[in-house]
Design a protein that fits this description.
- The chain has 537 residues and is of the alpha/beta class.
- It is 22% helix and 26% strand.
- The chain contains 14 helices and 22 strands.
- The strands form five sheets. It has a seven-stranded parallel sheet with strand order 4-7-1-8-9-10-11, with helices on both faces. Strands 14-13-16-17-18-19 form a six-stranded antiparallel sheet, covered by helices on one side.
- The longest helix is centred in the N-terminal third of the chain and has 21 residues.
- The N and C termini lie close together (11 Å).
Amino acid sequence: MANVLRPLILVRGFGGADVSDDQTSPYQGFNDGTVYPTRRGENYIYEGYLLRALKSTTYAYHDATNVVGFYSESVSAPPITTDIDSDSLEGTVVLDPGVESKVLSSGTAGTIWVYRYYDLRPRALKNYGKGLARLIELIERSAIRHGEEYRGVDIVAHSMGGLVTREGVLAMEADENGSAKRKVNRIVTLGTPHRGIAFQRAPAWLLRMLPKLKDASDEFESFDPESMRFLEWEEAFDMRRILTVVGTDFRSYNVGAASALNRLTSLFDEGNLAYNRTDGLVKQASAQLPGAPRTFVHKCHGGPDSLVTSREAYEISMRFFHGTHKVSLSLDEADITRGCDWFGKSEFYFGVSIKPRFVDFELFHQSAAAQNCYGPFHETELTDQLPALEDELREPLAAYGDGSMGWAGPDRLIWEGWVDARVKPDDAQGLVFRADFYVGERDTYGLGFSDNVVFRKQYYIQVFPGESPEIFIHTGERYLIGEYALTVDQLQTRATLGNGSEIQAAGVVPGIPSCWSFDIGGTGFSARLLVRIASDM
Protein backbone atom coordinates (compact mmCIF):
# COMPACT_ATOMS: atom_id res chain seq x y z
CA MET A 1 0.00 0.00 0.00
CA ALA A 2 1.48 3.32 -1.08
CA ASN A 3 2.06 5.95 1.58
CA VAL A 4 0.75 9.33 0.35
CA LEU A 5 2.60 12.12 2.16
CA ARG A 6 0.85 15.28 3.24
CA PRO A 7 2.50 18.70 3.48
CA LEU A 8 4.29 19.05 6.82
CA ILE A 9 4.46 22.37 8.69
CA LEU A 10 7.08 22.93 11.42
CA VAL A 11 6.30 25.57 14.05
CA ARG A 12 9.08 26.38 16.54
CA GLY A 13 8.44 27.88 19.93
CA PHE A 14 10.65 30.62 21.32
CA GLY A 15 9.10 33.27 23.53
CA GLY A 16 10.89 36.15 25.18
CA ALA A 17 11.33 39.89 24.89
CA ASP A 18 14.04 39.92 22.20
CA VAL A 19 13.44 37.69 19.16
CA SER A 20 16.04 39.20 16.80
CA ASP A 21 18.25 36.11 16.98
CA ASP A 22 15.26 33.88 16.30
CA GLN A 23 14.42 35.88 13.19
CA THR A 24 17.90 35.26 11.74
CA SER A 25 17.52 31.46 12.01
CA PRO A 26 16.49 30.24 8.53
CA TYR A 27 14.90 26.98 9.70
CA GLN A 28 13.97 28.14 13.19
CA GLY A 29 16.14 25.49 14.85
CA PHE A 30 14.58 22.48 13.10
CA ASN A 31 17.97 21.91 11.42
CA ASP A 32 19.65 21.47 14.83
CA GLY A 33 20.31 17.88 15.89
CA THR A 34 22.33 15.85 18.36
CA VAL A 35 25.43 13.63 18.26
CA TYR A 36 25.36 10.41 20.31
CA PRO A 37 29.08 9.46 20.61
CA THR A 38 28.53 5.96 22.05
CA ARG A 39 26.16 4.78 19.30
CA ARG A 40 26.71 3.52 15.77
CA GLY A 41 25.10 3.60 12.34
CA GLU A 42 21.81 5.45 12.01
CA ASN A 43 21.79 6.03 15.75
CA TYR A 44 25.13 7.92 15.80
CA ILE A 45 24.27 11.37 14.41
CA TYR A 46 20.78 12.82 14.32
CA GLU A 47 20.90 15.63 11.79
CA GLY A 48 17.83 17.46 13.07
CA TYR A 49 14.17 17.09 12.19
CA LEU A 50 14.34 18.83 8.82
CA LEU A 51 17.40 17.05 7.43
CA ARG A 52 16.30 13.63 8.69
CA ALA A 53 12.94 14.05 6.94
CA LEU A 54 14.59 15.24 3.71
CA LYS A 55 17.05 12.30 3.75
CA SER A 56 14.46 9.67 4.64
CA THR A 57 14.10 6.78 2.22
CA THR A 58 10.87 5.75 3.92
CA TYR A 59 9.08 9.09 3.76
CA ALA A 60 10.46 11.19 0.91
CA TYR A 61 9.90 14.80 1.94
CA HIS A 62 11.25 17.82 0.05
CA ASP A 63 11.91 21.41 1.11
CA ALA A 64 9.41 24.17 0.29
CA THR A 65 11.51 27.03 1.72
CA ASN A 66 10.96 30.38 -0.02
CA VAL A 67 7.70 29.32 -1.67
CA VAL A 68 5.98 31.50 0.94
CA GLY A 69 7.35 34.70 2.49
CA PHE A 70 6.38 36.22 5.85
CA TYR A 71 6.50 40.01 6.24
CA SER A 72 5.90 42.58 8.96
CA GLU A 73 4.09 44.85 6.50
CA SER A 74 1.85 44.05 3.56
CA VAL A 75 3.55 43.55 0.18
CA SER A 76 2.03 43.97 -3.28
CA ALA A 77 1.72 41.33 -5.98
CA PRO A 78 4.65 41.38 -8.44
CA PRO A 79 3.88 42.79 -11.91
CA ILE A 80 4.20 39.48 -13.78
CA THR A 81 1.86 37.21 -15.70
CA THR A 82 0.89 34.11 -13.69
CA ASP A 83 -2.03 31.78 -13.25
CA ILE A 84 -1.84 32.29 -9.47
CA ASP A 85 -4.65 34.43 -8.08
CA SER A 86 -3.59 37.91 -6.94
CA ASP A 87 -4.84 37.35 -3.37
CA SER A 88 -2.18 34.65 -2.89
CA LEU A 89 0.53 37.11 -3.95
CA GLU A 90 -0.21 40.10 -1.72
CA GLY A 91 -0.42 40.64 2.03
CA THR A 92 1.93 39.63 4.85
CA VAL A 93 1.94 35.87 4.11
CA VAL A 94 2.34 35.46 0.35
CA LEU A 95 3.37 33.03 -2.36
CA ASP A 96 6.33 33.75 -4.62
CA PRO A 97 5.21 32.73 -8.12
CA GLY A 98 8.71 31.98 -9.42
CA VAL A 99 9.70 29.68 -6.56
CA GLU A 100 6.23 28.14 -6.46
CA SER A 101 6.42 27.07 -10.11
CA LYS A 102 9.78 25.35 -9.53
CA VAL A 103 9.33 23.75 -6.11
CA LEU A 104 5.69 22.73 -6.45
CA SER A 105 5.80 21.59 -10.09
CA SER A 106 4.85 18.08 -8.93
CA GLY A 107 2.45 19.26 -6.22
CA THR A 108 2.50 19.83 -2.47
CA ALA A 109 2.60 16.20 -1.29
CA GLY A 110 5.59 15.63 0.99
CA THR A 111 6.62 19.29 1.15
CA ILE A 112 8.08 20.76 4.35
CA TRP A 113 7.21 24.31 5.40
CA VAL A 114 8.68 26.29 8.30
CA TYR A 115 6.21 28.81 9.69
CA ARG A 116 8.20 31.96 10.57
CA TYR A 117 5.60 33.74 12.67
CA TYR A 118 8.14 36.05 14.35
CA ASP A 119 8.54 37.86 11.01
CA LEU A 120 4.94 39.10 11.38
CA ARG A 121 3.63 42.11 13.30
CA PRO A 122 2.10 42.79 15.71
CA ARG A 123 3.49 40.24 18.18
CA ALA A 124 0.18 38.71 19.16
CA LEU A 125 -0.83 35.08 19.37
CA LYS A 126 -4.07 35.60 17.43
CA ASN A 127 -2.13 37.34 14.66
CA TYR A 128 0.28 34.41 14.51
CA GLY A 129 -2.73 32.07 14.33
CA LYS A 130 -4.19 33.98 11.39
CA GLY A 131 -0.81 33.77 9.66
CA LEU A 132 -0.76 29.98 10.08
CA ALA A 133 -4.32 29.71 8.76
CA ARG A 134 -3.24 31.80 5.78
CA LEU A 135 -0.20 29.54 5.13
CA ILE A 136 -2.42 26.45 5.14
CA GLU A 137 -4.86 28.17 2.80
CA LEU A 138 -2.02 28.94 0.36
CA ILE A 139 -0.85 25.31 0.49
CA GLU A 140 -4.39 24.11 -0.26
CA ARG A 141 -4.72 26.52 -3.19
CA SER A 142 -1.42 25.30 -4.63
CA ALA A 143 -2.48 21.67 -4.26
CA ILE A 144 -5.73 22.31 -6.15
CA ARG A 145 -3.94 24.37 -8.81
CA HIS A 146 -1.57 21.46 -9.48
CA GLY A 147 -4.40 18.94 -9.74
CA GLU A 148 -3.92 17.28 -6.36
CA GLU A 149 -6.54 16.02 -3.96
CA TYR A 150 -5.95 18.13 -0.85
CA ARG A 151 -5.85 15.85 2.20
CA GLY A 152 -4.82 18.32 4.90
CA VAL A 153 -1.46 19.18 6.44
CA ASP A 154 0.44 17.64 9.33
CA ILE A 155 1.95 19.96 11.95
CA VAL A 156 4.83 19.57 14.41
CA ALA A 157 4.82 22.38 16.97
CA HIS A 158 7.36 22.96 19.72
CA SER A 159 6.60 24.90 22.92
CA MET A 160 4.80 28.18 22.12
CA GLY A 161 4.43 26.91 18.57
CA GLY A 162 1.67 24.68 19.91
CA LEU A 163 -0.20 27.73 21.19
CA VAL A 164 0.24 29.36 17.78
CA THR A 165 -1.16 26.19 16.20
CA ARG A 166 -4.16 26.31 18.51
CA GLU A 167 -4.88 29.89 17.46
CA GLY A 168 -4.50 28.87 13.83
CA VAL A 169 -7.03 26.07 14.26
CA LEU A 170 -9.44 28.43 16.01
CA ALA A 171 -8.97 31.06 13.28
CA MET A 172 -9.81 28.52 10.57
CA GLU A 173 -12.88 27.43 12.47
CA ALA A 174 -14.03 31.02 12.92
CA ASP A 175 -13.79 31.63 9.17
CA GLU A 176 -15.52 28.41 8.16
CA ASN A 177 -17.20 25.94 10.51
CA GLY A 178 -15.54 22.52 10.25
CA SER A 179 -12.66 23.75 8.09
CA ALA A 180 -9.94 23.00 10.67
CA LYS A 181 -10.77 19.29 10.66
CA ARG A 182 -10.61 19.28 6.86
CA LYS A 183 -7.50 21.42 6.43
CA VAL A 184 -5.39 19.83 9.17
CA ASN A 185 -4.80 16.08 9.41
CA ARG A 186 -2.78 15.55 12.59
CA ILE A 187 -0.80 17.64 15.07
CA VAL A 188 2.14 16.76 17.33
CA THR A 189 3.06 19.19 20.11
CA LEU A 190 6.47 19.03 21.79
CA GLY A 191 6.53 20.45 25.31
CA THR A 192 3.78 22.96 24.58
CA PRO A 193 2.51 24.79 27.71
CA HIS A 194 -1.12 24.20 26.75
CA ARG A 195 -2.22 25.05 30.28
CA GLY A 196 0.35 27.74 30.93
CA ILE A 197 3.65 27.91 32.80
CA ALA A 198 3.31 27.42 36.54
CA PHE A 199 5.39 30.42 37.58
CA GLN A 200 4.35 32.73 34.72
CA ARG A 201 2.31 35.45 36.40
CA ALA A 202 3.83 38.65 35.03
CA PRO A 203 1.89 41.63 36.45
CA ALA A 204 0.21 43.90 33.90
CA TRP A 205 1.99 47.03 35.22
CA LEU A 206 5.39 45.41 34.53
CA LEU A 207 4.39 44.52 30.97
CA ARG A 208 3.32 48.12 30.36
CA MET A 209 6.46 49.72 31.82
CA LEU A 210 9.21 47.90 29.93
CA PRO A 211 9.16 48.52 26.15
CA LYS A 212 10.41 45.09 25.07
CA LEU A 213 8.09 43.33 27.49
CA LYS A 214 5.21 45.49 26.29
CA ASP A 215 5.83 44.35 22.70
CA ALA A 216 5.63 40.72 23.86
CA SER A 217 2.89 41.20 26.47
CA ASP A 218 0.36 39.08 24.55
CA GLU A 219 2.82 36.19 24.43
CA PHE A 220 3.54 36.39 28.15
CA GLU A 221 -0.18 36.48 28.95
CA SER A 222 -0.71 33.33 26.88
CA PHE A 223 1.37 31.43 29.47
CA ASP A 224 -1.06 32.33 32.29
CA PRO A 225 -1.58 29.15 34.39
CA GLU A 226 -5.12 30.29 35.23
CA SER A 227 -6.20 30.48 31.57
CA MET A 228 -8.82 28.00 30.32
CA ARG A 229 -8.37 28.74 26.61
CA PHE A 230 -6.85 25.29 26.07
CA LEU A 231 -10.39 23.84 26.34
CA GLU A 232 -11.29 25.60 23.08
CA TRP A 233 -9.20 23.04 21.19
CA GLU A 234 -11.98 20.46 21.32
CA GLU A 235 -14.56 22.89 19.95
CA ALA A 236 -12.66 23.08 16.67
CA PHE A 237 -10.67 19.86 16.31
CA ASP A 238 -10.71 16.11 16.93
CA MET A 239 -8.57 15.68 20.06
CA ARG A 240 -7.58 12.14 19.07
CA ARG A 241 -5.71 13.67 16.15
CA ILE A 242 -3.39 15.58 18.51
CA LEU A 243 -0.43 13.82 20.12
CA THR A 244 1.18 15.63 23.05
CA VAL A 245 4.84 14.77 23.64
CA VAL A 246 5.77 15.47 27.25
CA GLY A 247 9.36 16.04 28.38
CA THR A 248 10.53 14.80 31.79
CA ASP A 249 14.26 15.61 32.06
CA PHE A 250 14.30 18.85 34.06
CA ARG A 251 17.88 18.22 35.18
CA SER A 252 19.33 18.77 31.69
CA TYR A 253 17.63 22.10 31.11
CA ASN A 254 20.27 24.81 31.31
CA VAL A 255 17.96 27.54 32.60
CA GLY A 256 18.33 26.82 36.31
CA ALA A 257 16.02 29.62 37.41
CA ALA A 258 13.06 28.08 35.56
CA SER A 259 13.64 24.69 37.14
CA ALA A 260 13.92 26.23 40.60
CA LEU A 261 10.70 28.21 40.14
CA ASN A 262 8.84 25.10 39.00
CA ARG A 263 10.03 23.24 42.08
CA LEU A 264 8.88 26.15 44.21
CA THR A 265 5.37 25.95 42.74
CA SER A 266 5.30 22.29 43.82
CA LEU A 267 5.75 23.51 47.40
CA PHE A 268 2.56 25.56 47.11
CA ASP A 269 0.65 22.90 45.15
CA GLU A 270 1.36 19.91 47.38
CA GLY A 271 3.22 21.21 50.39
CA ASN A 272 6.66 19.74 49.63
CA LEU A 273 9.65 20.04 47.32
CA ALA A 274 9.86 16.34 46.50
CA TYR A 275 8.79 16.67 42.89
CA ASN A 276 9.80 18.68 39.86
CA ARG A 277 7.60 17.07 37.21
CA THR A 278 8.73 19.31 34.36
CA ASP A 279 10.95 19.40 31.27
CA GLY A 280 12.81 22.23 33.00
CA LEU A 281 10.31 24.88 31.90
CA VAL A 282 6.88 23.30 31.29
CA LYS A 283 5.14 21.08 33.81
CA GLN A 284 4.20 17.60 32.60
CA ALA A 285 0.57 18.36 33.44
CA SER A 286 0.64 21.51 31.31
CA ALA A 287 2.07 19.77 28.24
CA GLN A 288 -1.01 17.51 27.98
CA LEU A 289 -4.55 18.12 26.72
CA PRO A 290 -7.81 16.49 27.82
CA GLY A 291 -8.90 13.87 25.30
CA ALA A 292 -5.59 13.84 23.42
CA PRO A 293 -3.13 10.92 23.52
CA ARG A 294 0.22 11.61 25.15
CA THR A 295 3.65 10.10 25.39
CA PHE A 296 6.60 10.79 27.70
CA VAL A 297 10.21 11.21 26.57
CA HIS A 298 13.11 11.78 28.95
CA LYS A 299 14.26 15.03 27.33
CA CYS A 300 14.37 18.63 28.48
CA HIS A 301 12.51 21.58 26.97
CA GLY A 302 15.23 23.02 24.70
CA GLY A 303 18.92 22.95 23.87
CA PRO A 304 21.07 19.97 22.83
CA ASP A 305 19.34 16.56 22.89
CA SER A 306 16.05 18.14 23.87
CA LEU A 307 12.42 17.73 22.86
CA VAL A 308 13.05 19.59 19.61
CA THR A 309 16.61 18.43 18.78
CA SER A 310 16.43 14.73 19.73
CA ARG A 311 15.56 11.85 17.44
CA GLU A 312 12.68 10.82 19.68
CA ALA A 313 10.61 13.74 18.38
CA TYR A 314 11.12 12.63 14.79
CA GLU A 315 10.43 8.93 15.38
CA ILE A 316 7.31 9.51 17.46
CA SER A 317 5.76 12.07 15.14
CA MET A 318 6.42 10.11 11.94
CA ARG A 319 4.73 7.06 13.43
CA PHE A 320 1.75 9.20 14.45
CA PHE A 321 1.44 10.78 11.00
CA HIS A 322 1.96 7.62 8.94
CA GLY A 323 1.02 4.77 11.28
CA THR A 324 -1.26 2.04 9.96
CA HIS A 325 -2.08 0.64 13.41
CA LYS A 326 -2.50 1.96 16.93
CA VAL A 327 -1.05 -0.23 19.68
CA SER A 328 -2.10 0.17 23.30
CA LEU A 329 -0.78 -1.46 26.48
CA SER A 330 -2.91 -1.80 29.63
CA LEU A 331 -2.52 -3.39 33.05
CA ASP A 332 -5.08 -6.13 33.66
CA GLU A 333 -3.91 -7.73 36.94
CA ALA A 334 -1.00 -7.10 39.32
CA ASP A 335 0.35 -8.39 42.61
CA ILE A 336 3.25 -7.04 44.67
CA THR A 337 4.68 -9.67 47.03
CA ARG A 338 7.69 -7.91 48.55
CA GLY A 339 8.25 -4.57 50.19
CA CYS A 340 5.45 -3.13 52.36
CA ASP A 341 7.64 -1.89 55.23
CA TRP A 342 6.67 -3.00 58.72
CA PHE A 343 7.55 0.52 59.78
CA GLY A 344 6.96 3.77 57.96
CA LYS A 345 4.34 4.14 55.23
CA SER A 346 4.95 2.47 51.88
CA GLU A 347 3.67 3.65 48.54
CA PHE A 348 4.32 1.98 45.20
CA TYR A 349 4.94 3.27 41.68
CA PHE A 350 4.57 1.41 38.38
CA GLY A 351 6.23 2.42 35.11
CA VAL A 352 7.07 1.15 31.63
CA SER A 353 9.45 2.30 28.89
CA ILE A 354 9.04 1.29 25.22
CA LYS A 355 11.82 1.11 22.64
CA PRO A 356 11.51 -0.18 19.02
CA ARG A 357 14.11 -2.50 17.50
CA PHE A 358 16.70 -0.93 15.16
CA VAL A 359 15.98 2.51 16.64
CA ASP A 360 17.99 3.01 19.82
CA PHE A 361 15.58 5.63 21.14
CA GLU A 362 12.47 5.38 23.29
CA LEU A 363 8.92 5.96 22.13
CA PHE A 364 7.71 6.17 25.74
CA HIS A 365 9.58 6.63 29.00
CA GLN A 366 8.71 6.25 32.67
CA SER A 367 11.21 6.07 35.52
CA ALA A 368 11.88 7.25 39.04
CA ALA A 369 14.24 9.90 37.62
CA ALA A 370 11.49 11.21 35.34
CA GLN A 371 9.06 11.33 38.30
CA ASN A 372 6.23 10.18 36.00
CA CYS A 373 5.48 6.60 37.05
CA TYR A 374 1.85 5.77 37.79
CA GLY A 375 0.95 6.07 41.43
CA PRO A 376 1.26 6.35 44.31
CA PHE A 377 -0.41 3.03 45.13
CA HIS A 378 -1.01 1.61 48.56
CA GLU A 379 -2.83 -1.54 47.45
CA THR A 380 -0.49 -4.35 46.38
CA GLU A 381 -2.80 -5.10 43.42
CA LEU A 382 -2.33 -1.49 42.20
CA THR A 383 -6.08 -1.02 42.33
CA ASP A 384 -6.10 2.34 44.13
CA GLN A 385 -8.44 4.89 42.59
CA LEU A 386 -6.04 7.42 41.10
CA PRO A 387 -7.31 10.85 40.03
CA ALA A 388 -8.89 10.62 36.56
CA LEU A 389 -6.45 12.18 34.13
CA GLU A 390 -9.24 13.48 31.89
CA ASP A 391 -10.86 15.34 34.78
CA GLU A 392 -7.59 16.79 36.09
CA LEU A 393 -6.61 18.09 32.66
CA ARG A 394 -9.81 20.14 32.51
CA GLU A 395 -8.73 22.21 35.48
CA PRO A 396 -6.50 25.29 35.16
CA LEU A 397 -2.85 24.54 35.85
CA ALA A 398 -2.91 26.94 38.80
CA ALA A 399 -5.40 24.60 40.54
CA TYR A 400 -3.50 21.41 39.70
CA GLY A 401 -1.68 19.48 42.42
CA ASP A 402 0.89 17.08 40.95
CA GLY A 403 1.30 14.65 43.80
CA SER A 404 0.02 11.69 41.76
CA MET A 405 0.16 10.38 38.22
CA GLY A 406 -3.12 8.98 36.89
CA TRP A 407 -3.43 6.29 34.24
CA ALA A 408 -3.28 7.41 30.61
CA GLY A 409 -6.91 6.39 30.13
CA PRO A 410 -9.69 4.03 31.27
CA ASP A 411 -8.99 0.38 32.20
CA ARG A 412 -5.50 1.24 33.51
CA LEU A 413 -4.17 2.32 30.12
CA ILE A 414 -0.36 2.56 30.24
CA TRP A 415 0.67 3.59 26.74
CA GLU A 416 -0.67 4.00 23.24
CA GLY A 417 1.52 4.41 20.20
CA TRP A 418 1.49 4.04 16.44
CA VAL A 419 3.30 1.68 14.07
CA ASP A 420 3.54 1.60 10.29
CA ALA A 421 3.12 -2.03 9.27
CA ARG A 422 4.33 -1.15 5.78
CA VAL A 423 7.79 -0.40 7.17
CA LYS A 424 9.35 -3.72 8.15
CA PRO A 425 13.16 -3.96 8.19
CA ASP A 426 12.80 -7.75 8.22
CA ASP A 427 9.44 -9.23 7.21
CA ALA A 428 10.37 -12.59 8.73
CA GLN A 429 10.88 -10.98 12.16
CA GLY A 430 7.86 -8.70 12.26
CA LEU A 431 7.89 -5.66 14.55
CA VAL A 432 9.82 -5.94 17.82
CA PHE A 433 9.60 -3.66 20.84
CA ARG A 434 11.45 -3.85 24.13
CA ALA A 435 9.34 -3.08 27.19
CA ASP A 436 11.14 -2.22 30.45
CA PHE A 437 8.85 -2.77 33.46
CA TYR A 438 9.57 -1.12 36.80
CA VAL A 439 7.94 -1.21 40.24
CA GLY A 440 9.37 1.03 42.93
CA GLU A 441 8.62 1.64 46.60
CA ARG A 442 8.96 4.77 48.69
CA ASP A 443 8.59 5.23 52.43
CA THR A 444 6.76 8.52 52.95
CA TYR A 445 7.57 8.74 56.66
CA GLY A 446 11.31 8.85 56.03
CA LEU A 447 11.99 5.83 58.25
CA GLY A 448 12.75 3.42 55.43
CA PHE A 449 14.38 3.86 52.02
CA SER A 450 12.88 6.28 49.51
CA ASP A 451 14.07 4.45 46.38
CA ASN A 452 13.52 0.70 46.79
CA VAL A 453 13.26 -1.29 43.55
CA VAL A 454 10.64 -4.02 43.94
CA PHE A 455 10.82 -5.29 40.34
CA ARG A 456 12.64 -4.42 37.14
CA LYS A 457 12.73 -6.61 34.02
CA GLN A 458 12.84 -6.34 30.23
CA TYR A 459 10.59 -8.19 27.79
CA TYR A 460 10.64 -8.25 24.00
CA ILE A 461 7.26 -8.02 22.30
CA GLN A 462 7.28 -9.44 18.76
CA VAL A 463 4.29 -8.52 16.61
CA PHE A 464 3.43 -10.03 13.23
CA PRO A 465 0.77 -7.64 11.87
CA GLY A 466 -1.73 -8.60 9.23
CA GLU A 467 -5.28 -9.85 8.97
CA SER A 468 -4.61 -12.35 11.79
CA PRO A 469 -1.88 -10.79 13.95
CA GLU A 470 0.39 -12.97 16.07
CA ILE A 471 2.17 -11.72 19.19
CA PHE A 472 5.02 -13.42 21.03
CA ILE A 473 6.72 -12.38 24.25
CA HIS A 474 10.45 -13.09 24.73
CA THR A 475 12.58 -12.74 27.84
CA GLY A 476 15.72 -12.30 25.73
CA GLU A 477 16.90 -11.57 22.19
CA ARG A 478 18.22 -15.06 21.36
CA TYR A 479 15.39 -16.02 19.01
CA LEU A 480 15.06 -12.58 17.44
CA ILE A 481 18.47 -12.16 15.79
CA GLY A 482 20.57 -13.96 13.19
CA GLU A 483 20.73 -17.73 12.79
CA TYR A 484 18.58 -18.39 15.87
CA ALA A 485 15.66 -16.24 14.65
CA LEU A 486 12.43 -18.26 14.45
CA THR A 487 9.51 -18.13 12.06
CA VAL A 488 5.91 -17.75 13.27
CA ASP A 489 5.34 -21.52 13.07
CA GLN A 490 8.53 -22.26 14.99
CA LEU A 491 7.60 -19.71 17.63
CA GLN A 492 4.16 -21.25 18.02
CA THR A 493 5.68 -24.73 18.38
CA ARG A 494 8.25 -23.63 20.94
CA ALA A 495 5.64 -21.73 22.98
CA THR A 496 3.21 -24.70 22.83
CA LEU A 497 5.89 -27.10 24.04
CA GLY A 498 6.08 -25.19 27.31
CA ASN A 499 9.10 -23.01 26.78
CA GLY A 500 7.29 -20.14 28.44
CA SER A 501 10.42 -19.22 30.37
CA GLU A 502 11.86 -17.95 27.07
CA ILE A 503 8.88 -17.50 24.73
CA GLN A 504 5.17 -17.22 25.32
CA ALA A 505 2.45 -16.73 22.75
CA ALA A 506 0.14 -13.91 23.77
CA GLY A 507 -3.36 -15.28 24.22
CA VAL A 508 -6.41 -13.86 22.49
CA VAL A 509 -8.73 -12.29 25.08
CA PRO A 510 -12.31 -13.55 24.61
CA GLY A 511 -14.95 -10.89 24.09
CA ILE A 512 -12.49 -8.05 23.34
CA PRO A 513 -11.72 -7.49 19.63
CA SER A 514 -8.04 -7.49 18.63
CA CYS A 515 -6.83 -7.92 22.21
CA TRP A 516 -4.12 -10.23 23.54
CA SER A 517 -2.81 -10.92 27.05
CA PHE A 518 0.59 -11.94 28.38
CA ASP A 519 2.17 -12.43 31.80
CA ILE A 520 5.27 -10.94 33.36
CA GLY A 521 6.78 -11.58 36.74
CA GLY A 522 9.66 -12.45 38.96
CA THR A 523 10.77 -11.93 42.54
CA GLY A 524 8.37 -9.54 44.21
CA PHE A 525 5.90 -8.87 41.40
CA SER A 526 3.65 -10.50 38.83
CA ALA A 527 1.17 -9.00 36.38
CA ARG A 528 -0.97 -9.65 33.35
CA LEU A 529 -0.83 -7.09 30.55
CA LEU A 530 -3.24 -6.50 27.68
CA VAL A 531 -2.16 -5.48 24.16
CA ARG A 532 -4.69 -4.06 21.72
CA ILE A 533 -4.01 -3.50 18.03
CA ALA A 534 -6.43 -1.46 15.93
CA SER A 535 -6.26 -0.26 12.33
CA ASP A 536 -5.65 3.48 12.13
CA MET A 537 -5.58 4.22 8.42
